[in-house]
Design brief:
22% strand, 384 residues, alpha+beta, Heat Shock Protein 90, 49% helix, Beta-Lactamase
Length: 384
């Protein structure tokens, strides 16, 4: 009898222990699922699709500031690295929103990526996304800031460039008045006055021309243009100056190449290239103008035997008012706008311009334009 009671007690004890162990296992499993839910939580429904569709940078962060979702823009800007925000400035804004619960908006300038030197100007908005997440949206304002800087530099350069001839005109006018009794001096000062006034007029004209080219409707009329004729016009415009320096202007290459565009604007662009080549070439040298037409592209290359351009300046030669040799350019009356005008004319015609140069061995500027065809005519709005 006693042994039966012992067996029963053992069975009851075993059942109780087993039930307790099972309860402990169930509780542990539930805790594990809750922990996994916290660690591997997903963003609210629909947010994934919105983040993927954003053109700007979008980032969703969890309570530990781990990035759980980032848009392609955020990755390309280098805002996220190893599932974390790269920049302390952004982390600071996220922490502020997490503490206060209020959305914040701020403009920041940060480096592009964890190792980059380039600067990004961002317009950043940070707000809560549900109870647990933080949403960060950043719009790239870098181009806007760059354009503002270009405008400021442009205005400063205009003031500087105009100040020189205006000051010279004023001084020469005074000198002319004081030399009224000396016909020789009057003629000398009058000639100088005429030179400075022409320079002032040229700078003003080029500024107006450049402003017009930068407008969206700069190419209001596009016709079929004979490149041979454009080259002939540009050479004729530079013939006197070239002869005065014993520089030969030689043209050649493919004949009868045509593009759609504005003949006058193309003539201005080529004139500027040839004038620039003459300006930086030694007396007695040669400037070549070559035409090549192939694969739907017309190339016009202007080659000189001049001083060349240093490699570190090649990317800047098309900037407004930039001069590779400021002293030489000023002495010849250059404004530093010629190549910038060329660039905008070519771009308005759907083409591009390239430069090769080596100090002491001259330079080659190559204009590439779409050859006149049915597709080109439709592109620029001309009946084929």
């Amino acid at each position: 009898m006693n042994s039966a009671w012992l067996v029963l007690a053992a069975l009851v004890f075993g059942a109780v222990v087993g039930a307790g162990a099972f309860a402990v296992l169930v509780y542990a499993a539930r805790r594990g699922r809750r922990a996994a839910a916290v660690i591997n939580a997903t963003v609210p429904d629909g947010v994934d699709q919105v983040i993927e569709a954003l053109e700007s940078a979008g980032v969703v962060l969890d309570p530990s500031n781990n990035v759980v979702k980032a848009s392609p823009g955020a990755l390309s800007f280098g805002l996220v690295w190893n599932q974390a925000l790269v920049h302390p400035e952004l982390v600071r804004l996220v922490d502020r929103v997490r503490r206060n619960g209020e959305p914040v908006t701020e403009e920041l300038n940060v480096s592009r990526g964890p190792f980059g030197d380039a600067t990004l100007y961002l317009f950043v908005r940070v707000a809560r996304l549900g109870a647990r997440y933080i949403l960060l949206i950043a719009e790239d304002r870098t181009e806007s800031y760059r354009l503002d800087e270009v405008r400021r530099d442009f205005m400063a350069n205009i003031s500087h460039e105009l100040k020189t001839p205006i000051g010279a005109v004023s001084l020469l006018a005074e000198a002319l008045a004081s030399a009224a009794g000396d016909p020789k001096q009057v003629r000398k000062f009058a000639a100088q006055l005429s030179t400075e006034s022409e320079r002032l007029a040229r700078i003003t004209r080029e500024i107006i021309e450049l402003s017009r080219l930068q407008s969206q409707d700069a190419l209001t009329k596009a016709d079929r243009v004979d490149i041979d004729h454009v080259v002939a016009i540009a050479i004729d415009q530079n013939r006197v100056v070239a002869d005065s320096h014993r520089i030969r202007l030689v043209s050649g290459g493919d004949k009868n190449a045509e593009v759609y565009g504005d003949e006058a604007l193309l003539a201005i662009a080529l004139h500027n290239l040839i004038s620039n080549a003459i300006q930086y070439s030694p007396d007695g040298s040669r400037v070549g103008i070559g035409i090549n037409s192939s694969d739907g592209v017309v190339e016009i290359a202007v080659t000189d035997q001049g001083v060349g351009i240093p490699e570190d300046e090649l990317d800047r030669v098309f900037e407004r008012f930039f001069r590779s040799d400021p002293a030489r350019s000023r002495n010849t009356g250059g404004s530093g706008l010629g190549l910038s005008i060329v660039k905008h004319v070519v771009q308005n015609h759907g083409g591009d311009i390239r430069v090769w140069s080596q100090p002491g061995n001259g330079s080659t500027f190559t204009v590439r334009l779409p050859e006149a065809s049915h597709s080109t005519a439709q592109k620029v709005g001309v009946p084929a």
